[in-house]
Amino acid sequence: KIPGAGHWLHAEKPREFEDTVRVFLEA
């Protein structure tokens, strides 16, 4: 794991992040 990577990705691509989380939760 890279510290702060999640925050950075979420800040850069919020929509992509949401889609990824959605797919992960629905899997």
Which labels suit this protein?
2 helices; flat; mainly alpha
Kindly summarize this structure in a few lines.
The protein is mostly helical and 27 residues long. The protein contains two helices and no strands. The protein has one domain.
Topology diagram in text:
Layout lengths: L4 H8 L1 H13 L1
Helix pairs in contact: 1-2
Description:
With 27 residues, the chain is mainly α. The chain has one domain (1-27). Helix 1 (5-12) crosses helix 2 (14-26). It is flat and about 25 Å long. Helix content is 78%, strand content 0%.
Head-to-tail CA distance between termini: 21 Å
Q: What is the ordering of alpha helices and beta strands?
A: HH
Strand content: under 5%
Shape: flat
- How many domains? The number is 1
The count of helical stretches stands at: 2
Radius of gyration (CA) equals 10 Å
Helix/strand structural class:
mainly alpha
Helical percentage: over 70%
Question: For the residues shown, what is the average pLDDT?
Answer: 73
Which regions have little confidence, pLDDT < 50, spanning 5+ residues?
A: none
* Total beta strand runs: 0
- Largest sheet, strands/sense/barrel: none
